[in-house]
Specification:
- This protein is mainly beta and 125 residues long.
- The protein has three helices and ten strands, in the order E-E-E-H-E-E-E-E-E-H-E-E-H.
- It has a six-stranded mixed β-sheet with strand order 1-2-8-3-7-6. Strands 4-5 form a two-stranded antiparallel ribbon. It has a two-stranded antiparallel ribbon with strand order 9-10.
- A hairpin with a 2-residue loop joins strand 1 and strand 2.
- The protein is globular.
Length: 125
């Protein structure tokens, strides 16, 4: 499991917010703390599902979803949907599904994040 933290400016229909994001290869989905999500976008409908944390025991309820976009490493714009969780330890966790979609590679020894695929203008609109 690899993890790297970055400060990101998440943007959504309500506006931008600066966050500390954890890129985590141990997380399947991208998730966002509810208090942050409410600042950037209206919450999508509640999802009656729970996610299980890496410890295999702790379960957290998904309270909806939000769409956002951000720029990674000041060069690559991406957009995604994040599951909203009330009691999330991190502000945002970027999961493997997002990393695979954009070809994001983590290099913990050098603290690098490499993004191989950025959103094109056609994908954004």
């Amino acid at each position: 499991m690899m993890r790297i933290k970055r400060k990101l400016l998440l943007e959504g229909p309500k506006g931008p917010v600066q966050v500390e994001a954890l890129f985590d290869t141990g997380a399947t989905f991208t998730v966002i703390r509810k208090s942050i999500a409410e600042k950037i976008a209206p919450l999508g409908p509640p999802i009656r599902e729970k996610v299980t944390l890496a410890n295999g025991k702790t379960q957290l309820s998904i309270e909806g979803s939000v769409w956002f976009w951000t720029v990674i490493e000041e060069v690559c714009r991406i957009s995604d949907i994040a599951h909203v969780i009330e009691q999330l330890a991190e502000e945002v966790i970027i999961g493997v599904e997002t990393m695979e979609r954009y070809g994001i590679e983590l290099k913990p020894k050098t603290n690098e994040i490499i993004v191989k695929k950025c959103d094109t203008m056609e994908e954004l609109f």
